[in-house]
Amino acid sequence: MITLMFALATMLPSADASIATPAAAPRLPFIAPKATAVTDQTKCDNATVQAVDAARNMIQGVTLAGIVTYQVPPETIFVGKDGKPGGTIAVLTPSQRVRIYYTTGSGARTQEIDLE
Q1: Which domain holds residue 101?
Q2: What gap in Å lies between CA 21 and CA 24, rounded to an integer?
Q3: Rounded to whole angstroms, what are the CA distances from 102 to 10, 14, 95, 111?
């Protein structure tokens, strides 16, 4: 009788089984951006700004892979050291450390630039 009760108890769903648990978010290979959503196309570089061309909306950054030219469209979000969004390409200066979130396609197109 005890064996039968144990078998039945292990076969019945527990009350906790009805509670849905969210699926774990996939682990990113980089620190998550502060203000933009991550997609499967999002990439991230830690860089030192080498040159800023505000007239052409472009910057060059020195990364582990070498010098990369980024297109900086007007919708790019700039996040200050305080974690607050705001600013334009004009806040960037040569030798400044940044974390750049971008997508590729027709060049590296920025989505968010975090100042460090």
Answers
A1: 38-116
A2: 9
A3: 50, 45, 20, 5
In a domain, 112, yes or no: yes
d(CA 28, CA 42): 10
Residues 9 and 80: their CA atoms lie apart, in Å, by: 56
User: How many angstroms from the chain centroid is the CA of residue 106?
Assistant: 20
Report how far apart the first and last C-alpha atoms of the chain are (Å, whole number): 68
77 within a domain of the structure (yes/no): yes
pLDDT of the residue at 27: 86
**For position 37, what pLDDT does the model report?**
94
**Residue 27 maps to a domain:** no
Q: Quote the number of domains for the chain.
A: 1
CATH code, domain with 114 = 2.40.50.320
Q: Which residues of the chain have pLDDT under 50?
A: 1, 3-8, 15, 17
Q: How far apart are CA 49 and CA 51, in angstroms?
A: 6
* Total-model pTM: 0.77
The answer to whether position 69 is within a domain reads yes
